[in-house]
Amino acid sequence: MGYSQEAYVAYGVYIPLDPYAQDEAGLLTTEQVDQALSVPTVKIECPEVGHLSAGDLDRDKFFLVTQCDSAELGQYIRLIPNVDTEDWNHQLAHLIDTMGWSGLDLEPPSWFVVSDFS
Length: 118
Known about the structure:
- By secondary structure, the protein is of the alpha+beta class.
- It has one domain (5-117).
- It is built from three helices and four strands.
- The protein has helices spanning 29-37, 40-45, 86-99; strands at 5-15, 50-56, 59-72, 110-117.
- The protein has a four-stranded antiparallel beta sheet with strand order 2-3-1-4.
- β2 (50-56) and β3 (59-72) form a beta hairpin.
- It is globular.
């Protein structure tokens, strides 16, 4: 058994939910988002939105992301953070509303770095 360590640089929103938690229907958070993103109207409204589960071993955090790049240990990534994020913000807000997460105390979308050890 081996371990891997990466860092993700992404634009998006941290969603304070367990990505591996099941709801009453038996769907996991990640599956719920995948299911929502497969609906044609949501797919049209949120073409660049995906999700990221990353963190420390079995304590992953869950993010909705638009731009996401990873770098393995010892590598680096060059970013151009001055992109216009207005459209990304709209897409993220639309999916958050679709998922019923508007009531969560969420920070606004931003660039972040998440280290992942698994």
